[in-house]
Amino acid sequence: xxxxxxxxxxxxxxxxxxxxxxxxxxxxxxxxxxxxxxxxxxxxxxxxxxxxxxxxxxxxxxxxxxxxxxxxxxxxxxxxxxxxxxxxxxxxxxxxxxxxxxxxxxxxxxxxxxxxxxxxxxxxxxxxxxxxxxxxxxxxxxxxxxxxxxxxxxxxxxxxxxxxxxxxxxxxxxxxxxxxxxxxxxxxxxxxxxxxxxxxxxxxxxxxxxxxxxxxxxxxxxxxxxxxxxxxxxxxxxxxxxxxxxxxxxxxxxxxxxxxxxxxxxxxxxxxxxxxxxxxxxxxxxxxxxxxxxxxxxxxxxxxxxxxxxxxxxxxxxxxxxxxxxxxxxxxxxxxxxxxxxxxxxxxxxxxxxxxxxxxxxxxxxxxxxxxxxxxxxxxxxxxxxxxxxxxxxxxxxxxxxxxxxxxxxxxxxxxxxxxxxxxxxxxxxxxxxxxxxxxxxxxxxxxxxxxxxxxxxxxxxxxxxxxxxxxxxxxxxxxxxxxxxxxxxxxxxxxxxxxxxxxxxxxxxxxxxxxxxxxxxxxxxxxxxxxxxxxxxxxxxxxxx
Length: 546
Known about the structure:
Elements: E1 2-7, E2 14-19, E3 22-28, H1 30-33, H2 51-61, E4 70-73, H3 93-101, H4 103-110, E5 119-121, H5 124-133, E6 141-146, E7 153-161, E8 164-172, H6 177-187, H7 196-203, H8 211-215, E9 218-220, E10 226-228, H9 248-276, E11 280-284, H10 291-300, E12 305-308, H11 316-328, H12 347-357, E13 362-363, H13 367-376, E14 381-384, E15 398-402, H14 408-417, E16 426-430, H15 431-437, E17 438-439, E18 452-454, H16 456-459, E19 471-472, E20 475-477, H17 483-496, E21 500-505, H18 517-526, E22 531-534, E23 537-540
Parallel strand pairs: 1-4, 4-5, 6-11, 11-12, 14-22, 16-20
Antiparallel strand pairs: 1-2, 2-3, 6-7, 7-8, 9-10, 13-23, 14-15, 15-21, 16-21, 17-18, 18-19, 22-23
Helix pairs in contact: 5-11, 6-9, 7-9, 9-10, 13-17
């Protein structure tokens, strides 16, 4: 069974391919188009078809569009209520629905040879649920989805039982945790549906002093749902533009919104646990990218294990829709083996890029050792290895790396990337060392979707990755899954005594993560990065050699 999944509705257009129950490839269109989140100045540009991503997925499997058994589109226009107030996104709802209705014909044009009759609509939140439970390691489990909105709801609570989805509660629009968080994001001067993680980071600098008032407006209802009334944001803090200074009340508002979100999610999770009796929970939807809320659920909730889809946002619905359709056809599904589902390049292909770019480079007998020595010498390393990650997190394939023992490297990396200085950077650590260095939060944590306390004995030794609240968003590395990254971490620890390195995404502000060797060379040329480790090759800016 060959099923192509497509997301092309709100943002983060993406494609994913499932063949005989196995995830073969998945990629966001932004990695090809270089338009972050698939966005352009006009609203409907967010609905662009992931043509390049889809063609690449098919090429990976050597398939022609006519050979697909089905195409799963992660939105069902028949479920949309276009009369709803408060969710119309500026009057585009009817046009969005019409676009989705025409998607089969758009896709047959984009993928020449595809039968429009092969396209099937999959409900948005069912696609989210499938991306978590069917791709995850648990098998049957409870599943909770939450985001800004789907066709007519913003959250679904249910379970997979004998491989079939059973819904227990859904939250109809206009009530939405995700939309409330988006509104706070815009009020605080950041980009809606893009910069919500900045609010999460800013929250650590504030006190949730507006929480009592917010609880009157945003609260769980005890039946698997919640209510979100319009929030008078100006009552708490003045609206901020992107160029304005952040004031203490902005951080306090961020802290308050973060806390009320955590409370509602926890209440919903407790209700779902009581309803299903499962010990395992799978999460997806944009809200599931909130690492702090995920850890709050793990620490205070009733579930023993929590797994979060690494592409939890709308890009992941392409994968979930394909998996759900494959399951509906009776396929036996394999869990995701990792997030490295995007493009990769052979050594010969990389060297061809380097030759054509006419840059001096050298082939290293041990690129991990070379990069570790550069990091120990306090160089910033652009690390381009293997297949790119599916989802928003750099997980050791398209990463910027730095020495975690130098506090100034936080500011240094934020300057390299053109980011706000309150933004944290994350540590990568070998799985066998993680429990010694990081507490609170589930381990292993391979997808950087939880926060962990940095052990007091390590905070002064790892200042670059210790956030203002004493936490870090950890990625653990298992040698069986990531042998090259494990080699780098082991070599770095041998040189410095530190078991972690700084890891942030290989991109600069406002641009998608680097995906091919040309993007890597462009980023290296335009940003103050000292060494590019690309495949087995090293390019040094200042003539440094290991």
